[in-house]
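Record pair follows.
FIRST:
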Amino acid sequence: MLAATAVLVFWISLTLPLCQAGDDISFTLTPSFQNSNLLAFRGSAKGKETSIFLTSGQPGSVGRVYHKLPVRFRHADAPVKLVTFNTSFQFKITQPSCQQGEGFAFVVVPKPRAPPPGSVLGLMTPGRSLNHTFAVEFDTHQNMVYEDPPWQHVGVDLGSLISAQTTGSNMQELLASNLTLTAWIEYWGLYDTLEVRVSNGNRRPAKPDLELPRVRLPAILQRESYYVGFSASTGQCHQYYQIYKWSFTTRYVSHPPNKSAPPGACKAWYCSRTNFIVAVLLSSAGLGVAMLLLGAALLQFQAFLRVYLKTRSIQRRNKAGCSFTLFSFEELALATKNFSDKELLGRGGMGSVYKGVLSSDGSVVAVKLLANDSKESHHQFISELSIISRLQHKNLVSLRGWCHEKSKLILVYEFMPNGSLDTILFDHRRVLQWDQRYNIAQGIAEALAFLHGGWEHKIVHRDVKAANVLLDADFVPRLGDFGLARFMDATTEDMTKVGTLGYIAPELAYTGRATVKSDVYGFGVVLLEIATGLHALDKSFEADGITLLDWVWKANTGGMLLEAADVKLIKCFDALQMERVLTLGLLCCHPDADSRPTMRECCQFLSGDVPAPVPPTSRPVTLSYYAEHPAIQALNEP
């Protein structure tokens, strides 16, 4: 086991990017931005609870926001070193009154100054130059002075507002959509290549919208350190520019002068590390006899590593940069006061969760310490690390980082101040108001719809329950605990290892295989809990030998569905919404998996876009869709 642990630490350290090394910088900023001590606001820019407003929205408004720490883009004592960086951010351009505001830009500037009044994009006034400044503009106005195309566009500005390259007319529809968009800006110093991508989803597009080879960014950024941030102006229109989330990472690589990249060469910063891994693999062939001495345990562990490396390969190919941090055990022990019981947030079958405060930036995190270093714990650790680290959605928990030291497996998450849904919902001393409950139901539905069809892979959560729904400071739900989650193309285990009693779909007893429909069943149970304030296996039902689902079906059959509403609400709820939640909960818990709605349909029902179907007056009972299963055939034999 010691040998296996050593191999795990060695291989993971090679295959995962490290977020902090030497002069590298890495940060991810998420709400709340109000009173942020990491950002400097200039002009009309302001930090609010859910986003950064770059302007006030009024005509003539200009604003800038910077990260307070300067970023070293080159070394004064080693001019052949060039920075490699990537940044991604979620943003929204709201154009309520006209389509010809000015826009905003991601900027790299020498000093964190306030924007000049009347400046274009908050960058410069007409007639001035952009010396030592790099920007990627999201321009909503054609300015003939700067040779803009006649459509809203994204452009790369290298010391001038006359863009070196701009997007085509296809970008007009995205920028004018009033939707929340995501941008990725990536620069590889080794090959002087810049790529820009924009999407209306969280998935990074394979093809860049802009690609500039031979940029030679250090020729523009000639100083040692710069400030990074955003700049905006409204021009003559009422427009709003909001930033919801921002990540930024730098890496330094050695740059041989006048050496061009061979065709098809990998441009990412980790290429040399990949070459090293290949060299290690080739060298290890000669050590086959020694490897046999490790026995069956090591062979099993190698199989585990192959699974892990497969799940990581997509990230490496995507060149997505550093999305989470490798923490040391000492750092997390310090953050949690040596994993003190006073900092304990909760304990489950697979481990314990502690509240922690990181000494590096003072941020509050949730530290999940897995119960042991067993094979099962390894599977849960790798599942969460490989799945949630690649997902970004407002209703999914955000992974901050991980640690594997001293036989400890640890995951670090964003802290949720209001804890889990079950701790509030089933506490008779606390009352969760109906509007909060309804928003929570919609948020959970959106998260599951994203997992089932909003990403490149379908993911089955396999443990949907109120205890796995976390609530942030504004009671926005975040679905968490992906230890049992699997990709749809993965082979699932038998049902005794899937889910929690009270939330398990009936077909699992016969098929043993979890699907998106079994997730829908768990969601249906959670909906009934939200509406009634009762647990799926509430103790009040023990005497009658029934469950919450049985009880709600009984109320529906008797034509008294609304009587199932939580008495703690003292009838302070929207009757149509309550009926919609209870009805949808029953439909999601239909014993026939094929009769359950999809999660996308659930989102439509809850939003009111589509009327929810009326459940049958009597409870359906069917095993017909298992007719070919041996267990059912045995029941039907005379």
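SECOND:
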Amino acid sequence: MHANKSSAVLSKKDAGGEEDITVDLHPFIREYKGGRVERFLSSSYVEASEDAAANRGVATKDVVVHESTGVSARLFLPAAAAATGDRLPVILYVHGGSFCTESAFCRTYHNYVRSLAARAGALVVSVEYRLAPEHPVPAAYDDAWAALQWVASLSDPWLSDHADLGRTFLAGDSAGGNIVYNTAVRAARGGGTGDHIGVEGLVIVHPYFWGVERLSSSELVWDGVAMFTPELIDRLWPFVTAGRLDKNDPRVNPLDEEITSLTCQRMLVAVAEKDTLRDRGRWLAARMRECCAWADDDEKAVTLVESEGEDHGFHLYNPLRATSKVLMESIVQFINQRTALPLPAALLPEPYELHACGGMKMDPCCLPILGVPARPYMDVFGYGMAMKAEFLAELQAKVTTVTAAALTVLVGGDFNLIRSGADKNNNNINWPRVAMFNSAIASMALREVARSGTRFTWTNKQLDPVRSVLDRVFMSPEWEMGFPLCTLVAETRIGSDHVPLIYSSGEERIRRSSRFFFETAWFEVPGFEEIFREKWRVCVDSLGPQRGPMEFWNAVGGRLRASLKGWGANLGRSDKEHRAVILADIAWIDAMADARAILEQEWAHRYDLEGQVEASLRAEEEYWRRRSGLKWILKGDANTKYFQAYANGRHRKCSILRLQSEQGLLL
């Protein structure tokens, strides 16, 4: 029901004529003369369960975080991520509901936070804070602060065993977004006690901020579309604060000095196009970029996600909608941003860009570039069935030799072995091989590089597929010390039965050149000659008087280059956007398959979408092949015997057949 149907009239009879209504804030809450309150935005209670298998791969439990107030929280621990043995990012989540409704234990937020924990591979603490009007604001702020202090204390075994407090995030939606912002401000100031708590990032979805001064016309007059009217939002803050705080209080209308005080490293703000509160979220993101010192050096430090055609809180009630999936993926990528989750990559044009199978060209700001190590190292890539006992023994001998020579080690590939029961979607597991694999890795003193993204790395692509984690990357302690930010991303699988793994050393990325390149492939674009002539005419007509032909040529050439560069950047944009939507749908199906057994029809739909992406990529692959000019890529029967011989010779020159140091031959 839309909020515009709520009444501003106080002290009236309800529909039954039995009680006086003193405050009517439908669809949130009503308060009656006798003090009784009626809440409307609520869903059924869900029990916590530590049985991850019965809860879509996520174990949950309820804990009390503050004895005197009784404030509690629900913990969400994704079993697959926990089974890796790596420390997990921690998300303190605060639910919405206008400070007066909803619960961390209700079905709506239980399902959403469970999905967030599974997708992000994070340990989530969902706070059950006290609600107004029984506990007016600022009680909710105090409860969230108490929960953050409790998380930092590592009082619970789940936190002490699995949490990485160096990656602590505060997240919330609507009123919860407001609460986590104010909690971050309090954390930056030490909570009044000087006890600073580190927060890496903020995730604020459709945040509730307001003020006396209006930012846009949508905050003045209801447009007849938005879920909440400005009049309803105006009356909400005085109600939940018991009239103690005005609408310009810094907790609802942030001050620049508070924004400046934030010490987190990055922030994501999500707004919905039809939401009355959307301009407040945009304003906050803009002020973050302007005021925060940590946002000066990184243009990606503040991320604004806008959902077209959507209203407040749409993602909670329609999680399968495409816009909901995109929002969830944006949050997951933000949480794992140190792993630089990009869109899948295809053949890329620049020599420093990483090539991976199946996908699309990425924004240079989020390219997973491999930093070149500044010291000697060895990487060993093996494949397939040979990686059993014989290969593990051979690998162990090589690692021992290389380590003795003071070289760091990175080992990756398709090991065709699993490490635990969570690495396979059925119970057909060869446990002796699992023990053998883990024992070999332990004896080599290697640690697996933390992987984010899709849960499984291989499938047999059947309608009832077998799915396993076969592809891994391991590193020596010396490698990890040299590259502490090295990460691994499992991308959406397209074409192959293995997912592409994108490794990043975490070093400084090489920026794309801003030089202009005239693409010969443009000649094949229908109507390019007419497009070129028109751009030339516009450039010539825009010039003033020129002193000579050289000045004329330089001026026209500069403007024409800029015009063609912009035109070329947008060439094929609609195809890329359509492919991105399909890839998001595929990623969502894969996520659903990670959480539950999906139907054969759903797998068939996934394979159909995969075929569409492959067809879309063929033309783009040919385009990048022509642009790159690489002459050593083998193309089978499409090339002459002479070219094959030439290409093979070039390829052999690029191969490393042995490693040698000052002490002599190593391998």
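COMMENT: Confidence is low (pLDDT under 50) at residues 1-12, 339-387, 630-638.
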